Amino acid sequence: MSMDWVPPAEDEPPADRPSWSRLLGVLGLAVGLVVALNLLTGGAGSTPTRALAPARPAAPPTAEAPMPIPCPTGLGGVELDGTPRPRGTPVVLERCVKDPHRRQGMVLRRARDGSIGRNSAVVTWPVAAYGYRPTGLELSPDGHRRELVWEVGGDLARVHGDLPEWELIAIAERVTVQQDILLIGPPPGFFLLYANWYPAALTHEVRYFPLQANLVPYLGANGLVFTGMQRSAELEDLLLDDPGRRAVGAVHGHPAMLTSRLGSAAVLWEPTPGTWAYVAYTGIIGTEQVGQALVELARTSRELTDAEFQSRL
Fold this sequence. Notes:
This protein is α+β, with helices and mostly antiparallel strands. Helix content is 19%, strand content 32%. It contains 6 helices and 17 strands. The radius of gyration is 37 Å and the shape is globular. The chain starts with 18 loop residues before the first helix and ends with a helix.
């Protein structure tokens, strides 16, 4: 774009005005016109001022990732002891899961006759992301357990147990969610055994190969024997889901159950309320064949304090 500047006649400078002064005035006005035109047209390579082109609104703030929850403390463990006495070096493991999005779980027991895997119920929330849908009370095909899924706290909850229909409904009616925390006031005749995460936040395990643990007469040379301790609702849920679970007397003075839902076979008991311990086997031998050997191993096992377990890591 070209522009010839011709000053108005009345602004004509005196005849004796120096020519260089006129030239400077022409150049100054031309520069001013070019700058103004560039601002108005948003010329290439220009940077508009905020008045002419408001700044693009800031992107909405992104939600910060939830901080991982701290790993629990104070959990002990179980090691094989007695006869047959372990030999060799077992593998000692501490697994801590810090995912803040885990499901929450509660275990309720019937006060008069509830025990591990018997006359109890597990409540879990939230479960929509795990494929559950709202249902009426459902009975498993073999009739050994019942479950109910319903809406609460903006998601779905599930109660699962071996209790009569009316007791499961009474439990469900008392479940609430406040500030994303699963809560319940147990119905009459029940007590709350455990309320925290559904899967274990912390697991302490000790693993033995049969040759290491002198278990070849019991289990052959194949497979793996492992002991463990954790606090979670998941182990109780696994027991309630096993129609073949059976009581096997006491381990360290506490009722124990044999199940095929943890490895190939496992014996579970509760050293303290809300804490589950186990001696388990995974391999080619079936539950019934290995069951009695596991019961004997559990009864001769040694329960460890947290300090004792940590010293073995």
